[in-house]
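If you are new to this repository, start here. Below is one unmodified record pulled from the training split, so you can see the exact layout before writing a loader.
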Amino acid sequence: MAKPPTSVGGSTLADILERVLDKGIVIAGDITVSIGDVELLSIRIRLLVASVDKAKEIGINWWESDPYLSTRAQELMMVNQKLLERVSNLEQELLLLKGAEDEKAALPKNRQTK
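And here is the target side for that same chain:
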């Protein structure tokens, strides 16, 4: 049984979607709301529709480091937080040690102990 002709020359929606994702499509636009010469609102819209492979090919991979989208990024954020806490603790310990050394140096020579 023959397919009925369509307006896209026999292509199905799946075929069109596959072509768009394979090649990518960019939609760009600017919206400005003004009263007289005073600009009240400016919106820049940039939309890229492409497959993940195509996006990576053109250098777009923000989802790999977005902590809300990547479990690896969440793991890295946790490790980073732990490291920051360790550094903070070490800095505090160094300050305490330096303070103790300063106090020891301020004591008269006969009161210093080894």
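Two things worth knowing about this chain: The two ends are 100 Å apart (CA to CA). The chain has a mean pLDDT of 82.
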